[in-house]
Amino acid sequence: MTLKVYTSFFLLVLVNSVWSRTVRQVYDDLGPDHWSHFTSECPRECFCPPSFPNALYCDNKGLKEIPPIPARIWYLYLQNNLIETVSEKPFVNATHLRWINLNKNKITNSGIENGALSKLKRLLYLFLEDNELEEVPAPLPVGLEQLRLARNKISRIPEGVFSNLENLTMLDLHQNSLLDSALQSDTFQGLSNLMQLNIAKNSLKKMPLSLPANTLQLFLDNNSIEVIPENYFTAIPKVTFLRLNYNKLSDAGIPSSGFNASSILDLQLSHNQLTKIPPINAHLEHLHLDHNRIRSVNGTQICPVSIAVAEDYGFHGNIPRLRYLRLDGNEIQPPIPLDIMICFRLLQAVVI
């Protein structure tokens, strides 16, 4: 599983890199006459780098509106301005846009003209972090792969807003104003290829239900979650990285099979209210339990296989794979119990 996850991300980076180099090479072969044409097309408020003419840099210019975007532009940088509205007009000729960065502006939902975003058929990456949005904007481009909406004022997710976004792999909603009521059973319907979901720093008290089955990374830090429902992770059987730091989880809120999912490799439960280490799966590799209320560690109790099996060097099939264990900020006194080392023979670091 680990190899597959890393390979997917590596291929994504590689494809983007090759794509960018190919585009640059095409324009590097153009003559002076072409350069003068590109320069004349460049909005006077912006910068058009000669070495990368399919990018337009309009960031940090004090702009209050989006200038007309030339047809050749693929990458548009508009962050750190005073933009309040997103209308269709500036994008009339920009039919090749792949990337728009509108972070750190003053955009509201009422300031986004209906259809202004959805008509950008080739858009893959949309960044609207640090704006004034109160709900997820709609409609969105159907080919979108990444949607970043962190640090807005979003408290509402319109019904069906994600229903056609089957290519979306990353959705970032962290540091907004989402309550449990905002996440309905069909909220994420349609996100069949979602890999990363970030809902950290909201106001959730419950684990969100009906998450996309292909979710690999789930970030729920800094909420007020108290309970992990029984068999919760059977609905997201591929989840690999799980972050629940800074919540209100107690021993009573975690069922005996709470984190017994073979897909989870990295589990973060720091800054909660646990007094003991919850049951884990033998496949887990990284466990963060710092700053809880744990007083002691019993290797026999937390070992996902019996100590007798763990002592058998020849039994490699179910040998626990834990490599990193963080326990600092609790009430545990060294030394580390010997049965911990007997169980977790692959441990490389223990922080107390």
From TrEMBL:
Signal sequence interval, chain numbering: 1-20
Pfam families tied to this protein: LRR_6, LRR_8, LRRNT
SUPFAM superfamilies named among the record's database cross-references: L domain-like
Keywords: Disulfide bond, Extracellular matrix, Glycoprotein, Leucine-rich repeat, Proteoglycan, Repeat, Secreted, Signal
Localization in the cell: Secreted, Extracellular space, Extracellular matrix
SMART domains noted in UniProt: LRR_BAC, LRR_TYP, LRRNT
GO cellular component, one term: extracellular space
Residue span(s) of domain LRRNT: 41-75
Role: Plays an important role in generating and maintaining a transparent matrix within the corneal stroma.
Similarity comment: family membership: Belongs to the small leucine-rich proteoglycan (SLRP) family. SLRP class II subfamily.
Name used for this protein in its record: Keratocan
Source species of the chain: Calypte anna (Anna's hummingbird)
